[in-house]
Structures are given as C-alpha cells and as structure tokens.
C-alpha cells in the first residue's frame, strides 16, 4: 500500500488485483490510495468494512476482486454489508460479472451511488461455452460418452443426434451474449429466432428473427437463456411453459439458475417433453437438483462457462477501468444504474 496522502482518493478493495498487469496497477496507485480487506463470509466482511471505515475512511469507492476458487463469497452486496461505506460518502461500487441480481441496486440508486459490472469480460467466453453446450445437447454427446466409458458401443435405441441445419434456436435475451451465440450458431446452419423486451435495431439482428415469447416456445427446437434474473424472470420457465413447448426440445441455460423451475425441468425431462438439457447455472447453487444429476440426458457444468486461463486478468482489468473512469469523470465505465 502506498503511503497515505490527503490528495489521493481512498478506495477500499476486497482481495488484491493479483491477476491484472502489475504496471497498470502500480500506475493507478500513484493516483489512488488502496486499503485492502480479505474475502470471508458476508457478516465477517461487513465487520471488516465497518472497521476499515472507522480506521481509514471515508472511501470514494469499494471494488471487489472475487477469489473464485474459495468460499464463501461476500454476497449479497446489501445495506448490511456496505451501509457504513454509503453513509460516509462512498459513491461507486464495482465487482466482477455481468449479472448483478445479488446486488441491492434499488438501495444504491436511492442513496445516489453507482454500481458497475463487467459485461465485456464474460460475453465471448460465455457465448463460446453456450455454443459448445448447444452442440453437445444436439448431438447427445454426454449420453454417448457415458456409454463409451461404461464399455458400451453405439446404442441404436437412443435418439440420434439432431441436425443443427434442420433446427431452430430460440434465444431469450438478446444482449451481448445472446447476439454472440446467435452468430456462433448460424455458422452451424441453425435458424435463429429471439425474444427480447424490445426488438433490436435491424442492423443488430444479423439474421435473427424477432418473435413473441409464445411464438419462440412453439418454433424452437433449442432454447438458450440469456436473460437477467429479476422478479419478472424468476421461474420464467415453469411447468406451464414447458407444456407449451415443442415435444423433444432442448433447453440450455448459462444465465441464472432460478430462471428455470428446476423441479418442473426434471419432470419435463422424465416425461420426455424435454429431450435434453445443458446447464451451467442452478437454482440453488452450488447444490444441483438430484433429478438433474440422475438424468442421463443432461450436460452439467459447475458455473464454469466463463472460466478460462485469461478470464481473471480481463475481469480485474475491467473492474479497475470502472474505478479509473469514475476517479477521472465521476461515473464508472459500466454503470448499471442512473443516479
């Protein structure tokens, strides 16, 4: 930590930016005074924040570099956690990831403070993983691999692979990730329809067709979810929605687990209404519904769609760019709320 200076704005940091380029961090520390606390449970971190404010505050920003490989995370980011920061003038909060369903945005907005996410870092990585999972589900590769590992050869009683060139992909949520997935899968010959709160400008559709939610359900052979989790999307895919879909359809989810009612999905898999499911996220993470684990027709990843050898470096850089932009302009680069 640099020596204290009354001229430098103070920033409280959870964990260290240990993957970001050291020269960039060193240069930023010439302008900003960093104070660090370590990751722990929500209540422990809340205590550490309160003590840091008392000893070294006030802070202008609080940024979180999540240690993805240890638990627990300091979620949720709510008044109980960050109240002492907000009440002493902290105006900007930022952490990793595009989603922010665990952040109390209403509280922050009411208090006139920003929350900034990192939408660029996960987009390409999640889109690549989604494309892989769609192809795995189309081809039933998890079932075939299980057979091979069990010493079985090709089981002709199982459904054959579906042909991407004869299949329609329905995308729910046509944001950064949805648009990338659309482009990926059109390369494999899939027709793409999408449902979004608002239709995209024509120059951003790139071959995808805007349809109603109901039309997407009845036309799609594969549905891929890329919508945020909120009260409007929680259990968006429930028993009634599954019943309105095509028979033998495939569902892929790399957004948030609770967008799907997992009990209803297990029922749809067991009945054959849903042919296969490929999931990276779960309703009660890190727990996975036992029916999903037991099903031979699921492809399951441990919320790892975004994880590759460079994601932590890029995520930390995007968080630091939020901070740098806020220090220079008063507004972070990727603010999700308006104040």
Distance between the termini: 31 Å
Helix content: 25-40%
CATH 4th-level superfamily of the largest domain: NAD(P)-binding Rossmann-like Domain
CATH class of the largest domain: Alpha Beta
Largest sheet: 7 strands, parallel
Describe the structure.
This protein is an alpha/beta fold and 339 residues long. It folds into 2 domains: 10-120 and 310-329, Rossmann fold, CATH 3.40.50.720; 122-300, NAD(P)-binding Rossmann-like Domain (Rossmann fold, 3-Layer(aba) Sandwich), CATH 3.40.50.720. 38% of the residues lie in helices and 15% in strands. It has 13 helices and 12 strands. It has a 7-stranded parallel sheet, sandwiched between helices. Strands 2-1-3-4-5 form a 5-stranded parallel sheet, with helices on both faces. α12 (290-294) links the parallel β11 (274-279) and β12 (298-300). The longest helix is centred in the middle third of the chain and has 20 residues, at 120-139. The relative contact order is 0.14.
How would you briefly describe this protein structure?
Helix content is 38%, strand content 15%. It is α/β, with parallel strands linked by helices.
Question: Could you list some keywords that capture this structure?
Answer:
single chain, 339 residues, alpha/beta, Rossmann fold, 2 domains, 7-stranded parallel beta sheet, 5-stranded parallel beta sheet, 13 helices, 12 strands, disordered N terminus, Glycerate-and formate-dehydrogenase, NAD(P)-bd_dom_sf, oxidoreductase, D-isomer_2_OHA_DH_cat_dom, D-isomer_2-hydroxyacid_DH
Topology, pairings included?
Blueprint: E1 10-14, H1 22-29, E2 33-37, H2 42-56, E3 61-64, H3 79-87, E4 92-94, H4 105-110, E5 114-116, H5 120-139, H6 141-149, E6 168-172, H7 176-186, E7 191-195, H8 202-205, E8 209-210, H9 213-219, E9 222-225, H10 239-244, E10 249-253, H11 262-271, E11 274-279, H12 290-294, E12 298-300, H13 311-329
Parallel strand pairs: 1-2, 1-3, 3-4, 4-5, 6-7, 6-9, 7-8, 9-10, 10-11, 11-12
Family: Belongs to the D-isomer specific 2-hydroxyacid dehydrogenase family.
Keywords: Oxidoreductase
Protein name: Glycerate-and formate-dehydrogenase
């Amino acid at each position: 930590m640099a020596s204290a200076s009354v001229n430098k704005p103070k920033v409280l940091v959870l964990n260290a930016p240990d993957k970001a380029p050291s020269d960039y961090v060193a240069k930023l520390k010439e302008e900003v005074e960093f104070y660090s606390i370590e990751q722990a449970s929500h209540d422990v971190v809340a205590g550490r924040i309160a003590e840091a404010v008392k000893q070294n505050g006030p802070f202008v920003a609080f940024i979180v570099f999540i240690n993805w490989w240890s638990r627990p995370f300091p979620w949720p980011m709510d008044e109980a956690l960050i109240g002492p920061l907000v009440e002493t003038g902290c105006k900007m909060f930022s952490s990793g990831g595009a989603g922010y369903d665990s952040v109390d945005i209403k509280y922050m907005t009411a208090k006139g403070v920003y929350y900034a996410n990192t939408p660029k870092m996960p987009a390409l990585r999640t889109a690549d993983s989604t494309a892989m999972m769609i192809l795995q589900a189309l081809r039933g590769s998890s079932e075939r691999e299980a057979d091979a590992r069990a010493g079985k050869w090709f089981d002709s009683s199982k459904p054959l692979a579906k042909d991407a060139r004869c299949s329609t992909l329905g995308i729910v949520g046509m944001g950064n990730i949805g648009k990338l997935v659309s482009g990926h899968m059109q390369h494999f010959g899939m027709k793409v329809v999408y449902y979004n709160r608002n239709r995209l400008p024509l120059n951003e559709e790139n071959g995808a067709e805007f349809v109603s939610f109901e039309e997407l359900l009845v036309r799609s052979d594969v549905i891929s979810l890329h919508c945020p989790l909120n009260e409007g999307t929680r259990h968006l895919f429930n028993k009634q929605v599954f019943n309105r879909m095509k028979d033998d359809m495939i569902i892929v989810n790399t957004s948030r687990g609770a967008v799907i009612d997992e009990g209803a999905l297990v029922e749809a898999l067991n009945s054959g209404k849903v042919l296969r499911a490929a999931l990276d996220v779960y309703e009660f993470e890190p727990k996975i519904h036992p029916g999903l684990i037991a099903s031979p027709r699921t492809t399951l990843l441990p919320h790892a769609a975004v994880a590759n050898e460079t994601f932590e470096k890029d995520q930390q850089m995007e968080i630091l760019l939020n901070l740098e932009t806020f220090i220079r302009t008063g507004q972070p680069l990727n603010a999700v709320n308006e104040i």
